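Reproducibility note. Readers wishing to regenerate the assembly model reported in the main text can use the exact inputs given here. Chain order matters: entities are listed in the order in which they were concatenated for prediction.
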Amino acid sequence: MAEDRFELLQGTLGLVVLKALLGGELHGYAIARWVETTTADVLRVEEGSLYPALRRLEDRGFITAQWGLSENNRRARYYALTAAGRRHLKAEAARWLEFSGAVTQVLRAAPSLA
Amino acid sequence: MAGEREPMWRRYRRFLRSDIAADVDEEIAFHLEMRSREYQAGGLPAEAALEAARERFGDVGRVAGWLRRHDLERERARRAGEIMGGIRHNLRMGVRALVTQPTFTVAAVLTLALGIGATTAMFSVVYGVLLRPLPYGEPDRLVRVWTAWKTMAGRGAVSAANVRDWRAQNHVFEDVALVKTNHSFNFTVDGEPERLVGARVWASLFPILRAEPLIGRTFTEDANEIGHENVVVLSHQLWVRRFGADPSIVGKTVPLNGVPTTVVAVMKPGFRYPDRDCELWAPLTIPADEYNHRSWGSYGAVARLKPGVTLEQARADLRVVSSNLARQYKVNKEVEAGITPLLEDMVGRLEQPLFVLLGAVAALLLIGCANVTNLLLARGLSRRRELAVRTALGATRGRLVEQSITELVPLLTLGAVLGLLTAAGALRALVPLLPEDLPRAESIGINLPVLGFTMAIVIVIALLVGVWPAIDAAKGGLSAGLGELSRGSTGAPRRARVRDALVVSQIAVTLLLLVGATVLLRSFLALRAVTPGFNPAQALTVSLAIPESKYPGDAQITQFYTALIDRVQALPGVVAAGYVNRLPLGGGNQTAGLQVEDAQPDARWPNVQTRTVSPGYFRAIGIPLIEGRSFTERDGTDAPRVAIIDERLAQRFWPGASPIGRRIREGGDAWSTIVGVVGHIRHIGLDDDSDPQVYWNYPQRTQERLALVVRTPLEPAALTPSIAAAVREVDPQQPIYDARTLETVVDRSLGQRWLQTVLLAIFAGVALLLASVGAYGVIAYGVGQRTREFGVRMALGAGQRRVIGMVLRRGVTLFVLGSLAGLALSGATVRVLSTLVYAVAPNDTLSFVLATVVLFAVSMVACYVPARRASRVEPSIALRSE
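Running the prediction on these inputs yields the following structure tokens for the assembly.
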């Protein structure tokens, strides 16, 4: 468990979850694991806020939930992306990239920090 | 852990209703388990791994709590949406059914509208007249105070002396007011005389009724003193009508009875006392010497009980007061003070007729409901498959009933709206027809309590007609439903029995209404056949009330009336003319105890009707002179006092002898000599033949208020203008009122009976129509079901008559069952008519027979139509038809 990990910024958890589900339906633990693996454990999902975030996405119609059997034959709740969720992810991702690009640009501008 | 199975009961529970809290726990547990496995794989021991997983997760309890609350809330919203969606769906189905089955819709909606409309209209009459609180503050504490004579039943008028003493000595009244209602005032504006009905009242009346004026102040106690009485309070209606709502009217002087009178107040628009005809209130003054005549009085009295005092407590206190007075005054030995709640005093006599009519209309509604149920049952047949499938899929009976009622909502809404419109229309047509003496007719209308009542009956109808078809459909279940769909089936016998039972009960209730209507009708005809003892044909009557301020003494009054009668008798077309101070059957009453000279000293004074008449009266109204002579001009003020009695009094006191020359008097008066005997007439009502009659000559016992009766061979009403002109010649300021033919007077005296008879007859007629439609529907349906059978029978040689006979036999069976039940029902309930009938017993055999015959004839027609159709079946077509 490395020390230099980042908490997710406010509001980006939903985006990350949607992205995680883009590859197919997953249960909550798998979503958390996917984020950790994808970012090589740099981004860390606050698990206490993961499930409320899933509920909110469900309420907004971006994902659906369904009980199913896990890989080890346990009852688990699986989440899947809806068409609306897919559209939302696309739009939000574009916005995020534009925003972070702009911030990066600012930080790289002269006079340089390094 | 994979082998751990969830317990069966939880699965079952989840199947019925998702178990939200358990699901949340399970989701979190799964997460923690997966994480701890990961840590275990990394080398941690099981316990430490779970601990680390929990730590990683954060506050498990808080998150689980949030999720539970969220999920429960979401579930609740989902269910609500589902229920609303279900109701919306059923309503849509209901509307669709109405549109796609117009015949059914029209028949059912019209039946419902008729039933709901009639019931609502009748209830609004019952509510407006009987139930609605009086329009005064705290009306429950208002009572009428009356004289209870120990020797006579009924509520007697009160004397000023008694009321003064009761008022001073009681401990239960907040206050008491003496009133003289239905008092005539002559009022002239711009030379046009008008007779107004008003009341003379004690000043305490207004505080007792909690009546505040719109402008000005009602009069104070000293206005009841002689010399201060020339003030008047106007009704809002009079103020608007005659004074153009002049805001500065208070303080102005108006000519009332020829005397300048100061207007002190105008009442608010809704204020009425004692009824809507009363347009002004003036002080009631009592001359000092009147207080010496304790038993004489023709007043009414109203009182307000102190808060918390019950009627019983008040009666007990008044008994004490009355017995104290009886010790003090000899004449008070026969007298007690009686009280009755004011509303009951006004409308108590109407309770029975109105509730009978409401009951009749409710019966009508039930008959209509039976028809609608029948229609729904018939329609339900076409939906058997749908309902059967739903039942098979697990819809509970409650669910189906709910669905069936929701589907009825559009039908009932239409029926209720049309019904309310019908009721409003019926009231608009009916209220002006109500007899004039019906109290509180103005408070009849469609208001909130009436709407509440309508709503309640609609709900009852929904339960009555919705539940049965649904239960019926649900009971059948899958097998019956699908089985019945197979071609050629003759239908479930049980269903046919339900429909037969409905027809039988319709026939029973209809017979009840028919019997009631026939009894009332026979009673009414008996009453119409009663001869009143005078001749109402070819006679006109006009009323006059001359003001005492203008004609203060007997001489002036006599002069006025003599001058007038001379002119009227001279009019072309007038055969005879005369006066009477209270017209027979005109609603007025005047009785006295009569003393007969030379009778045994202890003999009880007979109660008689006394009237003041002019010499020409008997000829004008057509009362025959049996013995002796009528009054003449010579029986004047200074001549010896004379009297005429009716044959009944003559019979009673001088049977077989002539009463001419005998002497009689009202208590305390001078003796009058009997000069003639006339025929007995009915004075109070055609149904009331109680008291004998005594007549006095008008100059010898003057009256300010007289009704002129004129006999003519012409059309009587055509004489009104020339009589009005004659009155104006004698006194240009003198108005006349109530100009009507004598026949109208007789008819009006039967107004209430006429109305209740006509209404009950209409209800019975409609019931007959609905019941025959119901019987027709059931028989026709049965014929439709048996078309094939009839075809076979006819192919085998059965004649048309035989087929008709077969169908009719079923109708007769239903009729016999229904009428037996109906006769039993009638026998048990017609007693409620006992106070409404005259000369006919409520359980009048002829009425029962007539009603049964009428019902039989109509039901047979209703059955004959489908029977005839059955007999016309072409065997070949019938056999092929299915």
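We highlight two features of this model. The CA atoms of residues 147 and 153 of chain B lie 10 Å apart. The first helix of chain B runs from residue 8 to 16.
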